[in-house]
């Protein structure tokens, strides 16, 4: 099994995303969002990272949360995948590059 870890930015952006969703979504929708996160992590742990869309700089991403949030990750080596960040697609895409610096 692959090891999947969250970067510091991923932890921060996930928390920020949950806080934001709490203002606009129902509890049920947030639970579905978190299930999406768990499903993708489970896929990654099971070596299914190639099924996700290539993004940039050797990263891939999954669209989750009613397709409003993109989860970016990178395979570091044969045993490890790092989740880089969670990005709300309604934001300026330039922010992704800024967050990853």
Query: Largest sheet, described in full?
Result: 5 strands, mixed
> For this entry, what is the oligomeric state of its chains?
single chain
Distance between the termini: 29 Å
Number of helices: 3
Main structural class:
alpha+beta
Structure in a nutshell:
The protein has 101 residues and is an alpha+beta fold. It is built from three helices and five strands; from the N terminus they run E-H-H-E-E-E-E-H. The protein has helices spanning 8-24, 27-45, 94-100, and strands at residues 3-6, 53-54, 60-64, 69-77, 80-88.
Helices, strands, pairings?
Layout: E1 3-6, H1 8-24, H2 27-45, E2 53-54, E3 60-64, E4 69-77, E5 80-88, H3 94-100
Parallel strand pairs: 1-5
Antiparallel strand pairs: 2-3, 3-4, 4-5
What does this structure look like?
With 101 residues, the protein is an alpha+beta fold. The protein contains three helices and five strands. The longest helix has 19 residues. The chain is globular. The N and C termini lie far apart (29 Å). The mean pLDDT is 91.
Q: What distinguishing features does this structure have?
A:
43% helix, 5-stranded mixed sheet, alpha+beta, 101 residues
């Amino acid at each position: 099994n692959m090891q999947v870890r969250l970067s510091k930015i991923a932890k921060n952006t996930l928390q920020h995303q949950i806080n934001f969703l709490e203002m606009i979504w129902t509890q049920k929708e947030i639970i579905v969002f978190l299930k999406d996160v768990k499903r993708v992590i489970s896929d990654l742990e099971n070596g299914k990272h190639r099924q996700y869309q290539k993004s940039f700089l050797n990263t891939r991403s999954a669209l989750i949360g009613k397709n409003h949030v993109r989860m970016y990750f990178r395979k570091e080596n044969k045993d490890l995948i790092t989740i880089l960040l969670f990005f709300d697609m309604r934001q300026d895409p330039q922010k992704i590059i800024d967050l990853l610096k």
